[in-house]
Design a protein that fits this description.
The complex is a heterotrimer of chains A (314), B (391) and C (305).
Chain A lengths: L5 H23 L2 H26 L8 H16 L5 H23 L4 H21 L9 E2 L15 H23 L2 H11 L1 H7 L3 H27 L1 E2 L6 H14 L6 H19 L4 H14 L3 H11 L1
Antiparallel strand pairs in A: 1-2
Chain B lengths: L1 H15 L7 E8 L6 H17 L3 E2 L2 E9 L4 H13 L5 E4 L3 H13 L3 E4 L5 H4 L7 E3 L6 H12 L4 E7 L2 H13 L3 E8 L8 H10 L3 E4 L4 H12 L8 E4 L7 H4 L8 E3 L8 H13 L8 H19 L7 H10 L10 E2 L5 E12 L5 E13 L11
Parallel strand pairs in B: 1-3, 1-4, 4-5, 5-6, 7-8, 7-9, 9-10, 10-11
Antiparallel strand pairs in B: 2-3, 11-13, 12-13, 13-14
Chain C lengths: L1 H31 L6 H19 L2 H22 L9 H23 L15 E5 L2 E4 H23 L1 H11 L1 H6 L4 H27 L5 H16 L4 H27 L4 H26 L11
Antiparallel strand pairs in C: 1-2
Helix pairs in contact in C: 1-5, 1-6, 1-8, 1-9, 1-10, 2-3, 2-4, 2-8, 2-9, 3-8, 5-6, 9-10, 9-11, 10-11
């Protein structure tokens, strides 16, 4: 692979752009840009974690947003009950997501294909309705986060730029972690099981256990994204784990390019930036976006990343 | 990808537009402009625009720019749009909000940025009580007030027992609590339904019938009001168990409720036939300008008042928006001709106002219209103002 | 007791409505192996077509027939233009593509009919209530939904079990490659099945639309329920879809009406009022998860692969 392929160029430009964005926002005097991209980066973390199980592992979870919800509720409930230290909140968010992923995964991984898609949806919907039933924490309406997580002088999350860089650092860390994982022996088993489960089992790998570990790692990372999301919006609500949000995550991954390290990031940027830009052009922007998605599926397999990879050969 | 890059570029370019010099007044207006309840948002926008027309599109000699944002009836979207208005557009006032849950989610960033927030519809009890703010004013009501008036009216009618049905969100809970606080009879049952998704009320209507109350009280704003009323009729309840409502029958739902709405009482702080000059002008000009849509509604009336309230304050401070204390003092005076008749602000910046009984009647031309029947309560103040620390 | 019977009727009505949606969905899924999220869009289109035709023809029944015909045509057109190219592709491609179709149809309806939704006027003989049992008046219209849906279910049963076409459909659901090898014109069969599925969704939409009014996005929430139904029933199985729809309809409605009372025993009044409806909405997902844990391919897996 040549180092300076178009695909690599785009990734480098994208990363550089993300790194320099706060400076640009400062110069241009548009703090909203920073807000928009903080959101994109957080959702990109969630999408990257989904890519680990969906793109590499072939486990299509239609309930991945549930960890966004669990992570944000962990932070929200702690804050509501007076625990404002991030050193407590965030590990709790991560632990809760991991535990939930373990339970969901253990039960769901018994099923295959579409049944797996739907059973993960079922668990996410159950969590969604539990959140609606939490009368003390706002029920259907959600609740305002009175104060962002405190990290005793380490970092101030109320500083927008600092918060953005924290999210960005976590995104890079996530991408790196996923990349390392899939290229390890563990990742080979996971990918091998996607293409031929029977063979992996015949070789003697406990596929179910490998998949479960993978599922839990993805859920845990997404839970962290949920903790970020709660701090970012200052608001926690069941909407964070609605099935449409899980759908959004799937679309980001497929649009960007499955089983590609930077695909989910590209997908998140493309989808959210497109939404923002198209809705600026016409009130009926979805009538453009809808057929666009259809065309991408029909004529560009492998999403945007796939297009870029193919352009290299052209 | 090129598309996406272009799009991203467009976003950057849009956001990079230099902040305009502060010689005009910028107002952000958040309401619902998509989905089935967009008709409400449109009525609010029409009325707000009409108020600007009446003001010559100037407030205190300054040009006015209004930025309308769609909250999609979702708290998290409303919050996001509100943040954009404050951070990116740097508006002087944020106005609007139909839904209590959207307002509650968006509230904190506005008042913390010391921007004035004028609530033109939603009035959740938190904002009237403990969480009241020097930067929040309402041109509508506290949620409980309207159903409280309905509870009083049911007492007047001698109703002994009632069944309550409403949607499960901030305002729905406020509304049912409101009736319960003034109604002297027995509440035999209560249902909160999933909002805004659940539109089939068959199970709830069956339960209500089985509980055999003397009356049913219901709160379903927007299109859901039409759906509830039609199902109430189809279930054969009309004429058997009378219906009492708040925010369920308005000018927008009336064409779809048709004869089902006849004789169903509702409480409201504004009705289109209230006899004052400001109201006559508002209603007549609205109908002239927007002959193709039904309206105006109370949502519109409150938005019209919001524009007039801001104008009165800008005039009072001679256009000096930087002195927030002076601006607040002017807002608090409510020194303008409200279309509901003049009102005063309480310590929590919610109006102290009358509530009327309205009913749907058939005009000689066969069209349905709402008209005032009587005044239920005069100079009513919400029941949470004592919890507000502001004096 | 009378209340319970009435609630069961309500549940049956919801269940049968779900069946109309699920029948098409499960056939398309089972035979073409296509995940069609846009199925809810046909449900919505059916309601809007009926609203328009009802105004034009001044007859509800005629409008309903015309609307079904219109959704049939739209469904077949969508199949020929887009879906045909998606067969054999990854399920995720289906999800993305048909999600795009949802966006398109929602905006299309907004442009064509406006954002405020439409009424489907009912004739007065349907807009009343009938004394079904002494003391149980029931909406005549809801009763007619039950009757129509049962008739459609019976008709489907006859077609699938008793005709040559039905034989092909059953063969397709259990072994896709097989019917191709038998020299059947698969392209035409697929287009026809897709169209009929769309028309059934349209029928469900227009019938529900007369109660709930036609609205943009009305298909999305019920679509998820329909998916739950076909998963519980087993993909490709009409019988499974029928039984699962009625189960889901009954559990949802009965749960909604009795769970809050049940919660009141343990919780405060206010907490029960919030928790009750939330938990009853959860019941059907609980049911689906349980079924899948015990039987990973649903209750009546077609073909038994």
């Amino acid at each position: 692979m040549t180092v300076l392929s178009l695909r690599n160029l785009v990734v480098v430009v994208l990363l550089a752009g993300l790194l320099l964005l706060p400076i640009y926002a400062q110069v241009a005097g548009s703090p909203f840009l920073l807000t928009l991209f903080t959101r994109i980066v957080i959702l990109a973390i969630a999408a990257t974690s989904l890519n680990l199980i969906m793109g590499y592992g072939g486990m299509v979870s239609f309930g991945h947003a549930v960890y966004l919800g669990i992570g944000s509720y962990a932070v929200g409930i702690c804050a509501f009950e007076g625990v404002e230290s991030g050193f407590v909140q965030w590990p709790l968010a991560i632990a809760a997501s991991a535990l939930f992923a373990l339970v969901i995964g253990a039960l769901s991984l018994r099923t295959r294909g579409v049944y797996f898609i739907m059973i993960t949806l079922a668990f996410a919907q159950m969590a969604y309705y539990v959140a609606i039933g939490l009368d003390r924490y706002g029920g259907d309406d959600g609740m305002i986060l009175e104060a962002r997580s405190r990290f005793a002088g380490l970092i101030n999350l109320n500083d927008k730029t600092a918060f953005y860089y924290l999210c960005l650092a976590l995104l890079f860390a996530t991408i790196f972690l996923v990349w390392r994982l899939v290229n390890s022996r563990f990742g080979m088993v996971i990918q091998g099981a996607r293409s031929n489960e029977r063979r992996m089992r015949a070789i003697g790998f406990p596929v179910y256990r490998y998949r479960l570990v993978c599922f839990v790692i993805a859920g845990t990372i997404c839970g962290l994204a949920g903790a970020l999301l709660a701090n970012f919006t200052d608001f926690v609500s069941p909407a964070a784990m609605h099935w449409t949000r899980s759908g959004d995550l799937i679309i980001m991954v497929v649009l960007g390019g499955m089983a590609s390290p930077f695909g989910p990031l590209i997908g998140a940027v493309a989808l959210l930036a497109l939404e923002e830009a198209l809705s600026g052009i016409t009130e009926y922007w979805q009538i453009i976006l809808g057929p666009m998605l259809l065309l991408i599926v029909l004529f560009a397999r492998g999403g945007i990343d796939g297009i870029l990879a193919r352009l290299r050969h052209a | 990808m090129k598309m996406a890059l272009c799009a991203a570029g467009a976003v950057l370019a849009l956001a990079a537009a230099p902040a305009a010099a502060q010689d005009k007044i910028k107002i952000g207006f958040v309401s619902t402009f998509s989905g089935p309840t967009a008709v409400i948002g449109n009525d609010m926008r029409n009325s707000f625009e009409l108020a600007l027309d009446h003001l010559g599109r100037k407030m205190g000699g300054k040009d006015v720019e209004v930025i309308y944002e769609d909250d999609q009836q979702k708290p998290e979207v409303g919050l996001q749009k509100t943040q954009k208005l404050i951070q990116s557009d740097k508006v002087d006032f944020v106005v609007g909000y139909i839904w209590s849950n959207v307002l509650l989610a968006s509230y904190k960033p506005v008042v913390e940025s010391q921007t004035f927030l004028i609530g033109a519809n939603a009035g959740p009890h938190q904002l009237a009580g403990e969480q009241c703010s020097p930067f929040f004013f309402s041109t509508s009501w506290q949620n409980d007030q309207t159903p409280q008036a309905m509870g009083l009216y049911m007492n007047q009618k001698g109703v002994k027992s009632v069944y309550l049905i409403g949607p499960n969100y901030a305002a729905g809970k406020d509304m049912l609590a409101g009736v319960a606080s003034t109604f002297k009879g027995q509440i035999v049952g209560q249902d909160l339904t999933k909002w805004p998704d659940q539109l089939d009320f068959s199970a709830e209507l069956s339960k209500a019938r089985a509980a055999n109350p003397e009356a049913i009280f219901v709160f379903y704003p927007g299109a859901a009001g039409a759906q509830f009323l039609n199902q109430y009729v189809q279930a054969g309840l009309k004429g058997k168990i009378p219906l009492y409502t708040a925010f369920t029958i308005d000018e927008l739902t009336l064409p779809r409720q048709g004869d089902a709405a006849l004789g169903v009482p509702g409480a409201q702080e504004w009705v289109n036939d209230l006899p004052n000059d400001a109201n006559r002008k508002f209603v007549a000009d609205y109908r002239k300008k927007h002959a193709d849509v039904p309206g105006p509604t109370f949502y519109g009336a409150q938005s019209y008042d919001a524009a007039m309230l801001i104008d009165s304050a800008v005039k009072g401070t001679k256009g000096n928006l930087s002195d927030k204390n002076a601006l607040r003092a002017e807002l608090k005076k409510a020194n303008f001709k409200s279309v509901r008749g003049n009102f005063k602000y309480g310590n929590n910046h919610f109006p102290i106002q009358n509530f009327y009984l309205q009913e749907a009647v058939k005009n000689p031309d066969g069209k349905l219209a709402l008209k005032t029947v009587s005044t239920i309560v005069e100079n009513d103040q919400d029941r949470f103002h004592e919890k507000c620390p502001m004096k | 007791m009378l209340l319970f019977i009435e609630q069961c009727l309500n549940g049956l009505q919801l269940g049968l409505l779900l069946f109309l949606l699920a029948a098409g969905l499960t056939l398309i899924f089972g035979i073409m192996d296509l995940v069609n999220l846009a199925h809810g869009s046909f449900y919505m289109l059916g309601a809007y077509f009926a609203a328009t035709f009802a105004v034009m023809t001044d007859s509800f029944v005629l409008a309903a027939l015309l609307a079904m015909l219109a959704t049939l045509v739209v469904g077949m057109a969508v199949e020929v233009i887009a879906m045909r190219r998606l067969y054999g592709r990854d399920h995720l491609d289906h999800v993305l593509a048909t999600f795009g179709l949802i966006l398109f149809f929602n905006e299309f309806v907004r442009l064509a009919w406006g954002p405020e939704g439409r009424n489907i006027p009912l004739p007065s003989w349907l807009n009343t209530s009938i004394e079904l049992l002494p003391g149980v008046p029931y909406s005549a219209y809801r009763l007619s939904i039950i009757v129509v849906a049962l008739a459609v279910a019976f008709l489907l049963y006859l077609i699938v079990m008793r005709t040559r076409l039905g034989m092909l459909i059953r063969a397709g659901a259990s072994n896709r490659e097989m019917i191709g090898a038998l020299g059947v014109n698969i392209k035409l069969l697929y287009t026809l099945i897709f169209g009929v599925g769309a028309a059934l969704a349209g029928l469900a939409g227009l019938m529900q639309g007369a109660i709930l009014t036609a609205q943009i996005g009305m298909g999305e929430n019920i679509l998820i329920l329909a998916f739950v139904v076909i998963i519980i029933g087993g993909i490709g199985s009409i019988r499974g879809a029928f039984i699962a729809s009625i189960m889901v309809g009954l559990i949802d409605t009965v749960g909604r009406s009795y769970l809050p009372e049940f919660f009141k025993l343990a919780l405060s009044n206010e907490a029960a009022a919030t928790a009750g409806p939330a938990m009853s909405s959860m019941l059907i997902y609980l049911l689906m998860a349980l079924v899948l844990v015990v039987r990973p391919e649903g209750l009546f897996p077609a073909g038994g692969r």
